[in-house]
Amino acid sequence: MEKKKRKKRVTQxxxxxxxxxxxxxxxxxxxxxxxxxxGSYWAYQKHDENLQExxxxxxxxxxxxxxxxxxxxxxxxxxxxxxxxxxxxxxxKYDAVFNGLNITGIKGKIDVLKDNKFELLVDMTTPLxxxxxxxxxxxxxxxxxxxxxxxxxxxxxxxxxxxxxxxMNTESPKRGDILDSNNxxxxxxxxxxxxxxxxxxxxxxxxxxxxxxxxxxKFDLSTKELNTLLDQAWVKEDSFxxxxxxxxxxxxxxxxxxxxxxxxxxxxFYPLKEAAAQLVGYTGKVTAEExxxxxxxxxxxxxxxTGLEQQLDEKLRGKTGGxxxxxxxxxxxxxxxxxxxxxxxxxxxxxxxxxxxxxAYKALDGLPGSTVVTEPTTxxxxxxxxxxxxxxxxFILGVSQKEYDTYANNKLTPFLARFGVGYxxxxxxxxxxxxxxxxxxxxxxxxTREISGLKWQKDSSWGGxxxxxxxxxxxxxMNSALIHSDNIYFAQEALEMGSKKYLAGLxxxxxxxxxxxxxxxxxxxxxxxxxxxxxxxxxxxxxxxQLLINPIQQxxxxxxxxxxxxxxxxQLVQTENVKKQDNIISKTAANQVKEALxxxxxxxxxxxxxxxxxxxxxxxxxxxxxxxxxxxxxGQENSxxxxxxxxxxxxxxxxxxxNAKDTSAVEKNKEFIQQLK
Length: 677
Hints:
The chain is α+β, with helices and mostly antiparallel strands. Helices cover 34% and strands 23% of the residues. Among the domains are: 29-163, Nuclear Transport Factor 2, Chain: A, CATH 3.10.450.100; 354-387 and 421-674, Beta-lactamase.
């Protein structure tokens, strides 16, 4: 009996244990289901968040690129309809604001994203300054399985509300003047007459047609062009519709016609006209390329296009002022997004003297060439001239394509600033060769070389190449070689020095250096490589070979003869600093060469004797650099004159005429140089 009871209890215990096991198994299944469900939930949440980020990043990327068509695809259709707009209208609004106002540099990022709510931080650059960390707040809506932004006007600017519009008012700064050393303007503002049409004064029907035909002839505009101007959306019956701005120097009566009236507008004016065109340059409307390169441009100002107007543009132009406002649908002011006060441009005073600039230009008489006048003791550029030239005022008023083509197709290249172009300096360079020879104790004023004939070569290794000279003088020393401009003498002196010593002397001069005078120019060069042949050494000694030195650089190098061996760097913008380099050549060399150059003027046989006036002690050296394909042929000859005040070093002149067939630089500049006292 007891045994049966024990067996029953064991059976019950097993049953209970199995029952418990079953419960445990069921409980574990529930936990597994819960875990699977939780994991799916979090995966779903993560997927959802990724979709939201994808939408916001697409909005930001499109915003940054100003691709407003793609931007509109991230917006909820229903939300756009609630703003009483369609997608095309939204695209137009973004385009009008961000392209119309020239807002650039848009950069955005997601700052907050939680429970479908988000905040974006956006930086951008407006024409009036930077807007930083503009906060765009909103929510995301799910439409057709994708997230879209619940859009409203605040996604244009956070401050905007339904129906608002954006307006920008600008105030242009006064552009700084460019002044000469005596505060006379080289570039300034001037009032110009601007003619325009008042539509209501044209009459009606046939009268209107007749009056437009008259205006068409007077202003060289077709009636179709006139009607296009009159059909602009902003034009009302009493509006002034500008059609042409003309020079204040013109006879204005010829523009009188029914319906025409005029107002005064301020524009840039260049008093010296052709005489300073390549130096000063001109201005014009800012371009998209300029705005892209320079974030400081507002897009409404004129910028310098050439010359000093371009090189000094940032200082001259100042900063546009104004503000960007949000107005409500009734046109009432709501809020200002950004405001900037205008800053007028600064005047720039040059070392140039207007009187000398005009005199130097007239002396060239329209021939292709350049003249540079310096004050050699200070480096001040007193005149910087290129010829032929053009009137920059024509570009201010708007040059016609025909007129531009006339300039552009002119073989004498009037747009070219020849004072910044490198040339072989010709025989004026013999002065430097003489000075190096003196310092190397090879050359002396009275050392004589016996030279026979007009041609010479070192030996037969030169083949058919020979150095030629103009005057057959049998006994030649340094002074007579400069007076008669003897190529053979200086070729022989350089060969005696050798290329190593000669090059060492040349390299004391500013070859390869950039000169900070706000004029684009390539550094002066001695040769394409090194002087590796005797022929190139000989040619270099008398100013040919591969030498390339522009007129400003030449004036700088020759300043050593007016300054006892000290080289003074050029200065164009007024400053108290004078940059010098002492001991380029010795004082002895400078004075001995200077005295020889005085004899080049005073001696009746001197090549610069035409400059002799009896009153002033002038040191001078003429030069001719011939450009030809091969020897024993005739090539283009560029004529040079170097002249400076040998008594007090008040002035130094370098003048050059290209292809001087029937004249020379010394003859053309004779009166001008003699007046430099």
